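User: what does the whole thing look like in 3D?
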Amino acid sequence: MTDRMIADLEQLATTAPELAINAAIAVSGAADGYVTRPSAVGTLYISFSRHGISSVELADSPQDFEEKFALLYGRPALPVDRIPRVIERHLDDAIARGKPGRLPLDFGGLTAFQQSVLEKAAEIPTGEVRPYGWIAKEIGKPGAVRAVGSALAKNPIPVVVPCHRVVRSDGQLGNYSLGDPHNKRVLLEAEGLDLNTYESLADRGIRFTGSDTTKIFCNPSCGPAVRTTDEHRVEFRSESEARDRGYRPCKVCRPVSVAA
Amino acid sequence: MGPIMTKPDLTTTASDLATDLDGAFAGYVRATADGIFSGSLRMLGDRGDAEDVMQETYARAYAALQGYSPARIKALKVRGWTWTIAANLCRNRLRSRARKPKTSLEGFDVAGTGADTEEQALSQIGMTLQEALLDLPFPQRAGVVMRHVLDLTYEDVSVALDRPIGTVKADIHRGLARLRQAYPEEAI
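Assistant: Here's the predicted 3D structure for the full assembly of 448 residues, as structure tokens:
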């Protein structure tokens, strides 16, 4: 009689769910876990390591993403059905706002310069844009505009680290690395930037706008600049033109270098 | 109703982990996860809880192994050692369950759906045994599950529960005796 019950006890063994095994492996450095989220530009594949979000990618399929990831990072990415709580808590908000906020990021493998560029880009408010040169000045490397461009092109965590908010100084949107170049426009429009107005200013060579009531000039997409009514809006082609007319730079969007 | 389990060969796992922790960790998880999950499920009677325990077990195992010397890792009895972590987590979860109705472990929330709801179909006898297991005191329950569901050696069970082998054998013996009382007459 004992044998029969012992045999029945053995039948209580079962198998662990595959996605849960993957998540358990992802706690080590051996592999990253990944989940997907919808976005304005399509399904995002979001991977995380023990340190935080390691990449955001567009891909045609899970297999496509896994191949891309392994090629880029030299370790596998495994689909999981559960993610560390601190990531779960902040991920959707970070995607929706295009800002990491308290979401932990894994910048492993990036140089200190690349990190400082990405951290600066993350400060640009939702729905606003800044020129590449603005980042260069803000991080204290005013001559490194091209290097800023290439650091942004290699951003491993687009959308969450909003490299799409960094544009050319002539007002053209410039390149974008996440899928179709058009995605930069899609993301900016989705977060409420009035691209028609912004681009018509750029086409006319306008670099800054100001308000004749405050005598302050801003990046054209800066919140206060956007809210200035047409009758009070003043347009400038250069910093010197603005200063010559008695305007000072906005302290929020810092349209010119702090040292100036 | 349970699937046929082939016991994974763990003879090289400890030395693999000692040589290259990051490289060998995935293999170690795959070799031990079914047991950790099955055992936690039978000790706790809840799939979501069992997944939480499994997650937390490997997070702790990895953190611990990082601090061990290669010699110490090489000497590990991998299955029993992993169960020292998992058994503690199961015991803690039962204690906190006694205090409040439902908790989740530090660090992980269930992000997806599906996996928790499709409870593996158990036979009538399987369900009876599962329920009877949940009525056993923890040392008996853990001992019976490890020895007879997972086929661990008495020595591994003794390591995992940090109790002398003689005590473990007695616990398992008493546990089986109590299970037999719940085991349906007609099945004997």
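In plain terms: Chain A has eleven helices and eleven strands. The radius of gyration of chain A is 24 Å.
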